[in-house]
Specification:
Elements: H1 5-13, E1 28-37, H2 41-50, E2 57-60, E3 83-87, E4 90-95, E5 106-112, H3 118-123, H4 129-132, E6 138-145, E7 155-163, H5 165-175, E8 187-188, E9 215-220, H6 223-231, E10 237-240, E11 246-251
Antiparallel strand pairs: 1-5, 1-10, 1-11, 2-5, 3-4, 3-10, 6-7, 7-9, 8-9
Length: 258
């Protein structure tokens, strides 16, 4: 029996799941997390609005609040498998609970994640190699610059799933309507064209097998939001660890456009 989002969040809160969330609670929206000081919350929201492809906003909480509107009974301090703690832009630790660090001047952002359309891809008969191989998705920093806002600026990060050219066409059709979870791919084919020098060595996640006749297909990735938050070198920023997402109560199909 598959666990629903609330059951999966409870397992995570209890420390019973600390691995990537790809493939979990299929059909439900997963989200990237960024927590930062309220003094820069407007500028960060502006960055997301200016860069909706990699940073689609699902929810923004009031300062000090930990219960998002998109997940009943959830607590953003405990309900992600792994968090990253940054001080002045430098990674200090990875932890499974940020309750002791969170305070009433922190604003939390939840942003769309491409894990959310993997169920639709699977239902359409498309390969999702990271699921097939039990790995985290491959993620790369590109040479495409995001539109800056205030102190926030960074290049776009992408996730990659290999498939044949024919499958890539179908993937465009399947994912285009998921506009709040990155939508259609931003690039298909040559990694070098978007500044990726070695497809076998992603900056985040795991490398996956690319079979003969397959080409890499790239989607905008919410890890972009983490790079943006770190660019400001704030005293404290908390993010999800790449691939270790927040599982919401929203259904993928509820966020589609036709």
């Amino acid at each position: 029996m598959k666990e629903n989002p609330a059951q999966m969040r409870l397992r995570i809160r209890r420390g019973q799941w600390n691995r990537p969330t790809t493939g979990l609670a299929a059909g439900y929206v997963q989200a990237n997390l960024v927590m930062l000081p309220r003094e820069e919350a407007f500028n960060f929201l502006l960055f997301c609005v200016r860069n909706p492809k990699p940073c689609p906003v699902l929810d923004v909480l009031d300062p000090g609040q930990t219960a998002p509107r998109i997940a009943v009974g959830a607590d953003l301090r405990t309900d992600l498998p792994k968090y990253r703690i940054f001080e002045r832009g430098e990674l200090k630790s990875e932890v499974g609970d940020v309750s002791t660090l969170f305070h009433d001047r922190i604003v939390s952002f939840l942003l769309g994640c491409s894990f959310s359309f993997e169920a639709a891809m699977t239902a359409a008969g498309l390969p999702v190699r990271n699921l097939e191989e039990g790995k985290n998705v491959s993620m790369y920093i590109t040479n495409r610059s995001c539109t800056p806002a205030g102190p926030f600026s960074c290049p776009m990060v992408v996730s990659m799933r290999p498939m044949t050219p024919e499958q890539a066409v179908r993937a465009v059709q399947v994912t285009t309507r998921f506009h709040l979870t990155h939508g259609a791919p931003i690039h298909i084919g040559s990694p070098e064209a978007i500044g990726i020098k070695d497809i076998d060595h992603p900056e985040f996640g795991d490398p996956v097998t690319i079979l003969p006749r397959e080409i890499p297909v790239f989607w905008a990735c919410g890890v972009t939001s983490s790079l943006a938050a770190l660019s400001a070198k704030l005293p404290l920023v908390i993010t999800h660890a790449p691939g270790h997402m927040f599982i919401s109560d929203l259904r993928d199909e509820d966020l589609t456009v036709f």
